Amino acid sequence: MYRIIYYNSQTGYRKFDSDNYDVIADQHMHLKKHGCKIICIVDYNANVILNKCMDFKAHVVAVDRLVN
Description:
There is one protein chain. This protein is α+β, with helices and mostly antiparallel strands. It is built from two helices and four strands. It has a four-stranded antiparallel beta sheet with strand order 2-1-3-4, with helices on both faces. The longest helix is centred in the middle third of the chain and has 13 residues, at 21-33.
């Protein structure tokens, strides 16, 4: 499973899950196009965090609950 963790200025931190990487890739582009900040993508199969934003460390405390 994959999870996109992102920030929307109107709704705050959110997540989007899918087992299909193509769906994740499409949603990633959709979110960016609509002004959301992608914090990271979590790959639970490989147990890694991918595509961390440049200021990822500043968001760690806020998104920790969304990673688990």
